[in-house]
Structures are given as structure tokens and as C-alpha cells.
Amino acid sequence: MHETVILGGGIAGLTTAYALAKRGILSTVIEARMSLGGLAAGGSIAGVRIDLGAESFTLRSTKILELCAELGVEVRYPHGSSWVWDDGVASPIAHGIWGIPSSWDDPAFTVLSAEELDTARKLDSTVSSYGSQAHTLAELVRVRLGQAVLTKMVEPVAGAIHGISPEKLDLDAVAPGLREALLHEGSLIKAVHSQRGEEQASIVQPVGGINALVDALSAQLQAMGTSIVTGHMAIDLMYDDSAASSQTSTPVSSSTGSSSPSASDSPAPFGILLARSDGDKKNPQPCPGTEEVVFAKRLVVALDGPHARALVAPVLPTPPTGVDYEWTIPHSDPISTAILAIDDERLDPAPLGSGVLVKPGSSLPVKALTHYSMKWPWAAQELARAHGGKHVHLLRLSYGRPGEPSPSPTIDQALQDASALFGVAIKRHALIEGRIIEWGPSLIAHSPEHKKNVQSFLRSVDDVLGLAVTGAWVAGTGLGSVIPHAYKIGENID
């Protein structure tokens, strides 16, 4: 019998396991893929290991920095400015939150007319409580700064990052603490400044990439005695509430078979039917005939939303009137990332700074371009060492927006899009290495409706002793939301 089983070896599952281990509670982490990290996975491009998925995290909580410090992982702020691209016209992104500047001197305000800027100033000098009851990001910006700021400065950023209108972005989910800061400061611009400051960026990255944090977590967990099992997945779950209240600790051996486990055979409340997976990176499937049952006192489900809900819902209490466990979890269509290593000295001046977000509806299919080696200087140093000081640059191009056909970019398409954004023709012979990474559907930032459904679902989860659920679909998108939520689960689960 296991003290604690954690389903999912992504950053949420690993973080929960670490918080548990610090309490002296050892766990077994079970991951369907053959590697850990999920969307925080890493890989080698042009001789340098970089992030293939998530590359940074927002500073929404000090917990992430504390975690990195405990693990000896050094973090750095990004280098360079970023832009929004609208069919040949690049505009600076505000130093602030979601395109909302932290100062009236921000160059991003140049997209407004004199009249629009004057309107924004007047609105933001109104009674401090105006906008504090807003449900969405759009409501807040419209009330405090006006429609022009929303349309010209905030919508392009929200659309380029999440492919979704700020009308559908839950304010507390995407900008935690901003509502309270507004009430305290009496001005939205001042509220953003209080959260962002003047110099530092809102994101950081571990040296070596997010994947370096995954590697450090994995190594530390194994040193602390946590078991990590890859290539296995949960396909069914049973719960015995009488066992949950039992104080006995008689060990129960795992059994094998193709039927669902009977938790009544064990004093442990959770019976988890596992199977070996086929190891597919995008959508692992169970291998028939490899089933086995494990029992656990505690269970943390750190899977993606659809899989987590399907596994957990059958053991939850009957939902109260008006609560639906089957609501549609907002996801985009499958997304892709093209990573290019380019030897071209014309990119040395970094004409797009650290990168550019492409406004939805533009003529280019690409969603964003990150000049990775400019944004993160450690990567440029590693490239220089690997290639003898040549003018080698790493570019990441992201494809895929909600409601649009699933992208199937090629290396040639990525070169063409990068050329259009940089304004220089990048030739095929300049390519040192190119790679296309395909991901499944990605979670869209939480809407007020999704947030309400999640809260109801988690209240039902809390009614099951020893059960917890974590991950982006309940915590909010981005590692800045996921890691603190997962850590809290590990600190508090009974």
C-alpha cells in the first residue's frame, strides 16, 4: 500500500510531491509518458538544451522563487523589449500587466490619439472603487482607462497570448491581486505599478530553462525517497469511504487483472487501476493486458482537465442541484512550436527585441515569435560555445489559436514567417537545425464561468477524504498559478 499516489509527472505533480516530502510524507509519482515535465519538457537544439514547451513563469507568487532557491536553481529576468505585430506595423508592449502600463510615460501609449489619452487619464482619476467589482479584464480596463486602451493596447496582447478576448478572461484568474491593488492605490495605472515596479519584468526563467527546474525537482525528490514511475497511467479509480476513516495500516499487496479494483479488499480508501502506456508523447494510451491495481491512503490527481475529471467524477458525491461535473473545459485546438537555429549575423542587433506577439487576424499564421537566445542570454552563451562564436540565434515560433484550423507548420513555413517578422530574408542554408514540436489542445485562460464550475467541483473533491486535484485547469494557466497551487496541496492534504 502506498501512503500517497500522485497521478501526473508534470510540474504540478512534481511540486506537490516535493511539498509532501518536506513534510516527511513519501509519495509515488506516476507519469504516462516516458519523460517528466509535461508542457515544461526540454530538448537539445543545435547542441544546446532548451525548453520545448513553457519557457518562463510569471511572478504571481513568491513561492516559485522560494522553490527555485531551495533547489539551487538560479533564475534570471529576460533581456530586451517585446512588441505586437499587426501586418507590418510593430508597436511596443507596455511594461505592465496584460498591456496595461505601469506608468503614464510608457511608450505603449503612443498608439492612442491625444483625445484617447486624455480620456484614459480622466477615467483613471475617478473614484478609486470604480471597476473594483469587475468580473473580467475587459470590464476593468473599459471602466478605468476607456475603450481605446482596451482595443488598442490590451486586446492585442490577450489575443496574441491566449487567442481569446479579454471579455472572457476572469480578472482574478489572469491578474490576481490587481483588484485589491486598485482599491488601495485609487488608480489602475498605480495599481499595476505597485505590482510590477519600474525595472523588473513580470516573468523569470531558471538558467537552463524551465526544464532545468523539472530536472532539479526530479533529482531532489528521488534523493528524498520519492518514487517516480514513468510509462504507466491510471484508467480507473475506486473509493471506499469506510476505509478512509479506518486507522489500520495493514499493508496490502498490489493485484493484477483487467477489472476495476475493489477498494473494500484494503484498508486504503483508494484503489487505482493502472496500465502500462504506449509512451506516446501527445496522447498516451493504455496497453491491454498490462493492468495492475495499487492502493493508496491519499491520492493527488495532477492530470489535464478532461482526464482528471473523468477519473475523479465517479467517486465524488452526487452533485448539488445546479452543479454540473460535465461542463466544457475551455481548450484551444492543437498547437505547434517551430524551433529554428539560424546562423545569420543580420539578427545580431535583435530587431524585434526579445520577441513579438502577432495580432489575431493578421496575414501571418504564426501566433508569436520569441528570439530565445536574445531573451535569455545564457542560451546565447551556450550557442557561442557550441558553435565557435558564430552568429547563431535560436528562434521559437508558436502556432495555433482557438477557433482556427489546427496548424501544421513546416520548417520552410517557419523560415518564411520569421523572415516576414524580422524584415530580412532568412535563407534555408542559414538553418543549422529546425524542429517542429506538436502539442495537444492547450488550456485557455480561465473564464468566469469556468472558474465558477471549478470551485463547485473542488468543493465536492474536498468532501472525499484524502483526495486532491491540481493542475492548470483548476489553478489557472501558467506556472505562476500552477506551482503555488500544487505546493499548497502538498502542504495541506490530510
From TrEMBL:
Pfam families: Amino_oxidase. Transmembrane segments: none annotated. InterPro entries: Amino_oxidase, FAD/NAD-bd_sf, Zeta_carotene_desat/Oxidored. Residues 244-289 are annotated as: Disordered. It comes from the Bacteria. Residues 11-234 form the Amine oxidase domain. One of its GO terms (molecular function) is oxidoreductase activity. Residues 244-269 have a biased composition (Low complexity). Signal peptide: none annotated. PANTHER family: PROTOPORPHYRINOGEN OXIDASE. This is FAD-dependent oxidoreductase. The lineage of its organism: Bacteria, Bacillati, Actinomycetota, Actinomycetes, Actinomycetales.
